C-alpha cells in the first residue's frame, strides 16, 4: 500500500508537469478554457490514483492535496519571479 502511494505521487508529479507545459503553450486562452483544462487533468490524476490505490477517499484526498500544492507552488513562483 505504501509503495502505491509513492507511485501515485510520482504520477501526479508527471501529470502536473505536463499541465504546466500545456498551460504555458496555451497562455492566450481564456480563464474558462484553462479551468476546463485543469479539471481534465485533475480527473485523469484521480483516475490514476483510484487504479493504483483502490480506495476512493484516499485517492480523492491525494488528488486534491497534490492539486492544492501544485497551484500554491505555481502561485508562489509567479509572485517571487517578478
UniProtKB/TrEMBL annotation:
Keywords of this entry: Membrane, Transmembrane, Transmembrane helix
Residue intervals passing through the bilayer: 5-25, 31-53, 60-80
UniProt protein name: Uncharacterized protein
